[in-house]
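Sorry to interrupt, but I need a hand with the structure work. It will help me judge whether the discrete encoding reads sensibly. Write everything out right here, beneath this request:
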Amino acid sequence: MTTIALTRQISPSMERCELTYQSRVSIDIALARAQHHAYQQALAELGCQVIILPAEPDLPDSVFVEDPAIVVDEIAVITRPGAESRRPETASIARALQPYRKLAYIQAPGTIDGGDVMRVGKTLYVGVSRRSSQTGIAQLAAALAPFGYRVQAVPLTGCLHLKSAVTPVGADVLLINRQWVDAGHFAGMRFIEVHPSEPHGANALLLGQVVIYPDSFVYTRQRLEEAGIAVKTVPASEVQKAEGAVTCCSLIFESF
């Protein structure tokens, strides 16, 4: 069994990315590419087989490969992203996943972004956001029900995606910003709260026993390490300007 990390190179048009909760600032494309390469290296160092798709010059947000698909052990669900400009991203992601999984598709009028989907065991928590609708969530639940997965909708406030507000950092531990999501939705879990000065610090990528984490959130990183969690930091300033984070830039799944 091999852990696959599907990634895509930075688009030269990234400065035209979709933004919902952040103001537009200049993105250094050369720096973004260097940082993304460091991220890909971190994935490889943690044992992933990294697949790198070419850049999509006309798709500014296409580095965020997490959003066009939701991959579980048995199937991959190709999403219908909530931002219309991002819907062309799904075709190449579907082609890349086809050798590994049977594919299902979210259909109009449903919308869903992979960034709104957090898996804990056989439960998929899905943020009800500007990008993911109740119709899309219901379609995801129907696609996954034959395989024994439970889908639970989770209200959000103040952030783009569910995984902007909460992510797994251990087998039963979630890193959370309680200002953006109610911890009561995640029964049986333990929590580490982001430092108050770092509201965007709840997005972490758990790989095995190690968390890939942006180097900018130093106080929340300290909380993780004090809790006994191994942290591998990466630079992420430029994808953060595009309202992205470390989970957004890869699709992680097992190749059986």
Notes: The chain has six helices and 15 strands.
